[in-house]
């Protein structure tokens, strides 16, 4: 097992794709050391992606891509300006409110940063905001993408941890609100510190007009959450419903989605889905090897021998996840670490739904930092700043994000209250 872990880390640090590092190190152990037949190895990898909940992955990716291509982001941004543009530091608040709305459609931080980021950064620059402030606000608000449902990481976590994806979706709502409050408070502080004025006058007419203009797009999260809450469909079926609604908006209502765009969106979705499922298949084999060799049990015993206080354990795991999030892609990190950490959570009484939100937020913060922070690189390209300048622009925004993480970690009811109210948890 020491060889397995060493080879995995060595190959990963060499810049090899994650799924090759996972599969290669696992095959080294199973084929050459343990002598496990090849058909068993293939069966384990295929079994890792033979899951009904995983069908939600391509559909949520497709829904987010369709929303981006159908011109829906402009309508969301205009509505957010009408809501919050009148406040001090208005476009900073608009940046966050826009991400809250778009999070209910995309399910990923990268889609949020790429979709709304272009509009938000340019608008803030045109109104005299520094590029650094605009980039920092966009990066921080993008972390809301996988916390406010729907969420691609929640789907993967739910499958790996064998917990309700619907409960995870509902569990992310209040933490998303907490994050929004902390980020808006930071914008207010910066606005008063730097003398940032209001960017627009509040007008009921403008609010009503932009609301009607954006209403069909705003119905997407209502369809997803409402359908699951009332038991009309499962999370997987909700993803299909989101795709159908996005197609109706883009093709028939807004008429902004051409056949050529649809082909490109489809190809992008296939490419992204293939990458996700390759990682999940390889991580399933890696996790199976860790489990069968009792590495997960020994890791749990070692940590519990150090302490059995669940808050200390949560603190240590948070530190681990913040570091891992800087080096591993989110889906890979979830697929690798959930089998290792789940026995520890069970023994100290940490609710897996609560931990799913905590884990996802940790990994989202990791997306903002080098060496592998994808949101960082997306925003560096959009803003045409160096990676170093972009990193420095994001650093001050870690404050509200880490405060949100502390609150969500220490108060599990922020996550568990809503799923309990609708009967998804006891």
Q: Per the principal axes of the C-alpha atoms, what is the gross shape?
A: globular
**Care to count the β-strands?**
0
Spans where pLDDT lies below 50 across 5 or more residues: none
Determine the mean pLDDT.
83
Which percent range fits the helix content?
A: over 70%
Domain count, please report it.
1
User: Termini separation (Å)?
Assistant: 39 Å
- Count of individual helical segments: 22
The helix-strand sequence is: HHHHHHHHHHHHHHHHHHHHHH
State the major sheet: none
Layout of secondary structure:
Elements: H1 2-13, H2 18-33, H3 38-49, H4 56-69, H5 72-84, H6 90-106, H7 109-126, H8 131-142, H9 152-161, H10 165-171, H11 173-194, H12 204-229, H13 235-253, H14 259-292, H15 295-306, H16 310-325, H17 330-348, H18 352-366, H19 374-383, H20 387-394, H21 398-410, H22 413-421
Helix pairs in contact: 1-2, 2-14, 3-14, 4-13, 4-14, 5-6, 5-12, 6-7, 6-8, 6-11, 7-8, 7-19, 8-19, 8-20, 9-17, 9-18, 10-22, 11-21, 12-13, 14-17, 15-17, 16-17, 16-18, 17-18, 18-21, 19-20
